[in-house]
Amino acid sequence: MSPWFIHLLLLLLMTAHSAQSTATSCDACHKLARCLTSIHDNNVETVDVSCRCEDSVVGDGFICYNKTTCNSDCCGRGYRWSPLQGCIDIDECSLTPPPCGPGQLCENTPGSFSCLVSPVPQHHTAAITEPHSVVFACGNTQCPVGQDCLQVNGAARCTDPCQHYTPLRDAWRATDFKVDSASAVCDNRVWQGWYRLYIGNNGVQMPERCIEKYMCGTHAPLWLQTPHPQKSHGIIQGMVCGSWETGCCHFKSNPIHVKACPGNYYVYKFVSPNTCRLAYCADVNTIVCNTCTENQTCVSDDKVNWRCERNEPELDCGQDHLRVMIPKRVLQEQGLNASSAHLSDPSCHEQVDHQGEMWYLVERRKDVCGNVVKTNGTHIMYSNILFVYPSDWTNASLPIPMSIPFSCTFPLDDVLSLNSAIRYQLPGGSVGMVRSGDPIRATMTLYRGPDYSQPFPAGPVSLPLGSALHVGVSVENNDNGRFVLILENCYFTNTPSAEDPVQYALIQNRCPVDRRHVTVGESGLSQRAHFSALLFLYHGTYDDVYLHCRVSLCDLDSAPCRPNCSRRQARSTAASSNQLPVTVGPISWF
C-alpha cells in the first residue's frame, strides 16, 4: 500500500471523527455523541458548546448513525448516505439538468431547494427592492406563484398553503414564556407542509425582533430576520436568527418559507434548525383576527381587543332603509370628517357611530332625502348620493365633498305558499355602490269565512269537498303605498314545493281560470289581495294539496295595475317565471 494512500485514508478517518455542531448546551447532544466545551473571555465570559459523535458512529452530533447498521434507508428525502458523515444534504442545485427553470435562481436548502424569481420592476430604471418569490414544482409542472406542491387527499398537487396548513398551538412558543435550561425545547423534528402560529385561539406571527435567550420555551429563540412579505410577493424565503450569548443572531439557522394570506395572517414552512436547542417563536404582540376575510383588515385600538374592519364601503339594502357602511379608518385615511356627511338633500344626515364604522341611513321611499326611484316592470331601484366633507376645511375656502353614489335594486315578484297543508276531510272523519335587496315580504293566510277576519290556526287544515277556500295575501308596507299587490298565478300541488311540475291552476295571468270555481275579491288595488276558490278533487286522488301563489308589486305611477279580466290576457309566462313563491298546505278532504 503506497504511503500517499495511507495518508489519504488517515485523513478521511480523521475527517469522519471531526464533524461537530455548535450547541447551546450539552443536553442537545445525541446520546452517542460527546459534548465539547471551551471557555473564553471577551470582556464577558462565555462558554462555547459543541456536539461530536463518538468514534464508532457518524453524524452531526445532534443525530448519530451506526456505520455498520445504517445505509441510505436511514436518510430522509433530500439527504444521502455518507459512510464518513452519515446523512448529508443533497445539493439539488448542482444536479444536471438543473431543477429550476430558465431565468430562475436555484438556492439549496436543507433537504430541498428553492427556485427564486426576481420581481419585475414597474419601470426599467427602477431598482428591485422586493424580496425574491419562491416557485415550486410538482413533478414536471411548475406551480403558480404563491402555491406549493403539497399532498392533498393522497396526491401531490399545486396548492395554496393559505388553505392547507397545520395550526401550531404550543403555548411555550410565546415570546413572554421563559424556561429553565433543563426543560428547553429543540425544534429539531420532521416538519411537513405549512404551519400557522396560534397563542390560545388567537393567530399570531413570528417576531421580527431580537428575543432574549431562554424565552419561547427554548435556549436560543428563533426570530425572522427577513421582514414578513406582502400578499403580492407570494411565497418568499425568510432568513432566521437565534438569539444567544454573543447577540441577536448568534445562530444563523436554516431559512424558512413565508407567505402572507388574506385575512391578515401568515403561514410558515418550517424546517429543522441547524443546531439545538433552538425553537421558533410566536410573538404575543402580534395577535390578529382569525375570521377576517380578504376584504377586511384586523385592527385594534389597544393591541388587546381586535376586530375585523371592512377595507371599503359596503351597502346594505334593507326592507325599510338603505344603509351605507364606511370604516372610520378609511374616512380618516382620505382626510374626511365622518360626521359631516349628508345625502342629496343636505338636511338628511342620519348616521350611527358603530364601533369602527359609520353607518349612513336613508328611508326606502320615493322623494325622501333625494331618493331617485326607477322601475322596469320586474325590479325597482332606489338611488342616492352620500357626500362627505374634508376634515381640514376652513371658512376661507369652499369645501369640495367626496361623493359616493349608491343604488339598491329589489325584485317586484315573489311566490307565496301557505304554511300548512290542506287536507280533504272524507265522510266519517313563501350606480356607484350597487346591490340587490331581498324579495318583497309577502304572507298568505287561509281564513274561515269570506270576511277574512278569522284565520285558521297553523298546521294542516281539513275541509269538506265543495267547501270554499278564502285566501288572503298581504305585503309589508313599501314606499308609502306607491306599489300595489297583484295575484299573478295561484295553483295547487300535491307537494310543498312551489316548483312541482304537476300543478292545477286557479288563477292564471292575473285572472280566474274558471269563474264558477274561483272569485278574485281584490288584486291590484292595495298592498293586500284576496280570493275564494271551491275545493274539489283536482288531481283525481284524496292526497293532501298545497296552495301556492305567485305575486308581484305594480308601480301605480308607471302602469295600470288593476287586472282586466273581461277577456283572456296574453301575458308572457316568461315574465312570471322570474317570480318567487308563497305556499299554504296541506289541505285535506273530509
Describe the structure in your own words.
Residues 1-21 form the signal peptide. GO terms for molecular function: calcium ion binding. This is Uromodulin. This protein has 590 residues and is mainly beta. Among the domains are: 162-290, no CATH class; 314-436, Sandwich (Immunoglobulin-like); 442-562 and 578-589, Immunoglobulin-like (Sandwich). Helix content is 4%, strand content 42%. It is built from 3 helices and 44 strands. The strands form 13 sheets. Strands 32, 33, 36, 38, 39, 40, 43 and 44 form an 8-stranded mixed beta sheet that branches. Strands 21-20-19-18-22 form a 5-stranded mixed beta sheet, with no helix packed on it. It has a 4-stranded antiparallel beta sheet with strand order 25-26-28-27. The N and C termini lie far apart (115 Å).
Find the count of extended strands (DSSP E, 2+ residues): 44
User: How many strands, which pairing sense, and closed or not: the largest β-sheet?
Assistant: 8 strands, mixed
Rg: 37 Å
What percentage of the residues does DSSP assign to strands (E)? 35-45%
